[in-house]
From TrEMBL:
Pfam families: Ni_hydr_CYTB. It is found in: Cell membrane. InterPro entries: Cyt_b561_bac/Ni-Hgenase (IPR011577), Cytochrome_b561_oxidase (IPR052168), Di-haem_cyt_TM (IPR016174). Residues 9-180 form the Cytochrome b561 bacterial/Ni-hydrogenase domain. This is Cytochrome b. The chain crosses the membrane at residues 20-39, 51-69, 90-111, 147-168. Belongs to the cytochrome b561 family. It is a multi-pass membrane protein. One of its GO terms (biological process) is respiratory electron transport chain. GO terms for cellular component: plasma membrane. The keyword Electron transport applies. GO terms for molecular function: electron transfer activity; heme binding; metal ion binding.
Length: 186
């Protein structure tokens, strides 16, 4: 049994963090891609990017809470432990996802802040500008944001392929660990 006593499933809060952040990230990525096809400086591009920024900065703010809680709550036990290499691959993939969840909104923040663009949070308030307005820094932030987003999208795709592989080919317990007990069958 795991340190937190949740048996073979992640607890409700860990599952909540996972699914909330997954939804925020997928929506932010979709809005960012769609907004990129819109004419700069026009509506709905501005509004879409404001929501995109709000979602990305929300992910950035939730990440430390999720990470600390994960350290405290631990990981649930496996009924049948994966191979050492599979566990190592999963650990490296998850750590990379966490790193990209930091780098993507930080690079977006640098792009926006250094570019003199607003940093709204759902129209409630604006984040402070912690970097100077600087065209070169903004362009570097944009380049980093663009390529990190591509890397994140690719890794997210690989993550979903791994989910499908565990669910439909291996038919093991890995995917069920992130589902509620009654849905996961345990």
């Amino acid at each position: 049994m795991s340190r937190s006593g949740q048996g073979f499933h992640y607890d409700r809060l860990q599952r909540g963090f996972h699914w909330l952040m997954a939804a925020l990230i997928v929506i932010a990525l979709g809005l960012g891609i769609y907004a990129a096809w819109q004419v700069p400086g026009t509506s709905p591009r501005r509004e879409l990017l404001d929501i995109h920024k709000s979602l990305g900065l929300t992910v950035l703010l939730l990440l430390p809470l999720r990470f600390v809680y994960r350290l405290v709550a631990g990981e649930p036990a496996y009924r049948s432990a994966p191979s050492r290499s599979a566990h190592l691959a999963a650990t490296l993939a998850h750590l990379t996802l966490y790193a990209l969840m930091v780098l993507l909104p930080v690079s977006g923040y640098v792009y926006s802040a250094a570019g003199g663009y607003g940093l709204p949070w759902f129209g409630v308030f604006s984040f402070p500008r912690l970097v100077p307005v600087d065209k070169a820094l903004s362009q570097a932030g944009y380049g980093a944001h663009y390529w990190i987003a591509w890397g994140f999208g690719i890794l997210l795709g690989l993550h979903l392929l791994a989910v499908a592989w565990h669910a439909w080919i291996r038919r093991d317990e890995v995917v069920g660990r992130m589902w509620p007990r009654r849905v996961a069958g345990g």
